[in-house]
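Rather than argue in generalities, we have chosen a single entry, letters for residues, whole numbers for local backbone shapes, without further comment.
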Amino acid sequence: MPEDFGQFIWYELMTTDVEAAARFYTALTGWSAKTLSMPSMDYTILELPGQPVGVGGIMELQAIHKAEGIPPNWSGYISVDDVDLCAAELVMLGGSIRRQPEDIPGVGRLAVAADPHGAVFILFALVPEADAPPCATPGVAGTIGWHELLSGPPEEAFPFYEKLFGWKKADTIDMGEMGAYQLFAIGDKVSGGMMQKPADAPMAYWAFYISVPALDAAVETLTAGGGTVVFGPQEVPGGDFIVQATDPQGAYFCLVAPKR
């Protein structure tokens, strides 16, 4: 079993305008972007500021996705040791496979999956000959600082991930009328939270919070670049500040910072 089993190890944006999205996020986060040309498509790699450490990638939203009504979106890759076996277990636990396991030659094997409430994520395993990417220091600017599941009630949503990936419950925060906010740990680190999705949300989903040094400056860059703030700035338990937003192509993402 890989050391990073159950960890989010990659984040991917599917969008309608790759070049515009790359300009927006590099200005906002300091990421650098480089495009790799492959036989079937181009893929833009996003790296941390000043470091050859990959955070994620950008690819064009394919025609099949558009036909299915899938909008621009971010998704997270979760590390497993065997994609096919994990996919089979996932189905037994009530999840579903949206895209059957397939190989990325020389890189790894993946499958697009969804939990029992419909929140989508990607199962991923490196091929043995592939070099594992260097790990970024958690919490530094440009890393993903928080993972948030808006799905069914946490008492229904959490057991699926616990059984599949070995995640552990951490503190539970009472959100009043919004219900419980269940923190969870991956390994020995509290990595995110789960809560009941809003009634007006069309589907369950994962949200990813990009770490930035300060929120107000990031919001100025975000709006100047054509993004839209949909919630915040807001201080959250622990003292951090967050913003929830959409990029110019409509993909939902979030920011988190230690200061306003």
About this structure: The chain has a mean pLDDT of 90. The chain is about 20% helix and 45% strand.
